[in-house]
Design a protein that fits this description.
Strand content: 15-25%
Structural class: alpha/beta
Distance between the termini: 20 Å
Radius of gyration: 15 Å
Length: 186
């Protein structure tokens, strides 16, 4: 894997454990020589992970819509910064630049990005692994809900299995790497 897109909050979250996890994921990415692709912001968990990747000597590529850049939330010290027209272009470019996807804790935008990549995998648009960095049990409810969707017959077992999860950054990156190497069921 050359690059992983990380979706995460433009807010830091209520607990310091989320920023600590962003720094831990950054360290794992750099230690595996995997570049970061993310939303290009300097605020919240986005800024934390980008700053740590850069501090550790890794590559951080941001993809940011012009409107957000003009609101002065764009990171100015990245390896590469792509300025795009809108959120649709942002997601498409992040998907194109990445070999896999990780959703860290975040808000509605993080969930929207996560589910778009899961849907694209389900439809066979891509065969890249998708993971949840389940920091502090943040995604326990979502994991249970997807299991409920499966039990109720709305999500096939193979599609539910597209969403890998772990509370360890190292193990999650290993899961994604194995998923990328072995191909994914669609």
């Amino acid at each position: 894997m050359k690059a992983i897109a990380v979706y995460c909050g433009a807010a830091p979250g209520r607990l310091p454990v989320y920023a600590d996890a962003a720094r831990a994921l950054a360290a794992v990415l750099v230690s595996h020589n995997i570049g970061l692709v993310y939303g290009g912001g300097k605020v919240g968990l986005m800024g934390v992970i980008a700053d740590e990747v850069l501090r550790l000597g890794g590559e951080a590529s941001g993809v940011i819509p012009r409107a957000l850049l003009e609101r002065e939330v764009g990171h100015t010290g990245l390896t590469r910064q792509f300025v795009v027209k809108d959120m649709h272009e942002r997601k498409a470019m992040m998907a194109e630049l990445s070999d896999g996807f990780i959703a860290m804790p975040g808000g509605m935008g993080t969930l929207e990005e996560l589910f778009e990549m899961l849907t694209w995998a389900q439809l066979g648009i891509h065969a890249k692994p998708v993971g949840l960095f389940n920091v502090n049990g943040f995604y326990d409810g979502l994991i249970a809900f997807v299991a409920h969707q499966q039990a109720e017959g709305f999500v096939r077992p193979a599609h539910a299995g597209l969403m890998m999860a772990d509370e360890s950054a190292e193990r999650l990156v290993e899961l994604l790497h194995a998923g990328a190497a072995g191909g994914l069921a669609t």
